[in-house]
Amino acid sequence: MHKLQMVDLKRQYERIKPEVDAAIQEVIDSTAFIGGKNVQEFGNELAAYLGVKHVIPCANGTDALQIALMSLGLQPGDEVITTSFTFIATVEVIAFLKLKPVFVDVDADTFTMNVEGLKKAITPNTKAIVPVHLYGQSADMEPIMHIANEHNIPVIEDNAQAIGGNYTYSNGKTVKTGSIGLIGCTSFFPSKNLGCYGDGGAIFTNDDDVATKLRMIANHGQSKRYYHDMVGCNSRLDNIQAAVLRIKLPKLDEYCAARRAAADHYDNAFANHTNIVTPHRPEYCYHVFHQYTLQLKNVDRNKVQEMLAEREVPSMIYYPVPCHKQKMLEEYNVADTYLPVTEMLQECVISLPIHTELTQEELNYITTNFIEVVDQLSK
Description:
- It contains twelve helices and 15 strands.
- With 379 residues, it is α+β, with helices and mostly antiparallel strands.
C-alpha cells in the first residue's frame, strides 16, 4: 500500500504524465511564458464548462476574490457579509481593501451560510455578500440570491473549494457553482479538484461591463497598453499553468466522481456511528468533496489525530480558528460576534484523506483505523 496522504498529486500526475510533459515542453519551446494561447483557450474552455460568458484567469484564488471586490467600486467601511468558518483568504481581502467584514453563522449540517442569519445581518451599509461553497458543497444559493436581489446587493461566490460542483434550483434547473452570483471566484491551488502545478485562479461573470472591469483590474487597470484608467494589480495565470489546466479540465468530472466514490465509502463505513457525524448532502447540491469533513461527538479530537498519526493515517483540521477570532481582525472588534455553530464546529471537525487516487485497500485501512481509534477513545 502507498504511503497515505491527504492528497496524492504524484499518482494523479503519473496517470497524465505524457500529456502534461508534452504540453509544458511545448510552452517552453515557444518561450511564450506570459499570456499566450493556452491562457486564452483555457479561459474559453472553462467558460463553456461553467456555462458563463466570461472567465478571467488570474494568479491565484485570493487575487480572484480581491479583484472581484475591487470591481464593485466599494468604499472603505462598506460592509461585506460572509462566513467566518472558511479559509482566511475570503476575509483577508475584505480587510485588505479596508472594507468591514460582517459575519453570519453557518448551518451545522452543511457548513455553509445560514440564510436566516444573512437576512438579519443586512443593513443600509451592506454592499456585497460573499457566500462560501465550503469543502466542495454549495451554499444554498436560491434563497441567498433572493435576499440579495431584494436589497440590490451584488453576490460574489467563493468557489475555491467547489469547482465542478452543481446547484439545483427548486424548479429543477441545475447550474455550476460559481455561475450564480454576479461574480464567481476560484483557485487552482494544486490540491484543489482542478489544480495546476503552482498557483492559479480565475474569476467568472455573465455581465459584460463587470468582465471588462475585472480584466482591466487584473492587468494594471489598463484596457490599452500603457493607458491606465483605474487602480489595478498584476495578476496573471502563466502559460505553463494554463497548459496543465487545459489537460485536467476535461477530466474534472471524473476527478469529482472519484472523490464522491471515496466519500460514499466513508459514509457507509461510518453510518449510524454514535460518535461520528458524516457530511450532509442536501438535494440542492452535488457535493464534489474537496475535503471529507466529519464531526466528532464526545471524543477528544486532538487525541484522535494523534492516534491516527501513529497508525500513519493523515488527517487535518479545517479550520481550528475561525476568521472572526483571528488576530489580524482585532481592529474590527468582531471576536465577540455570536456564531455558536461556527465555534462548535471549530472544536469537532476533522478531515480524512480524499483524492482521486484512493484505492479500496487504502479506504479500508483508513476507515478501519478511524473507527478503532474513535471507539477506543469513546469508551
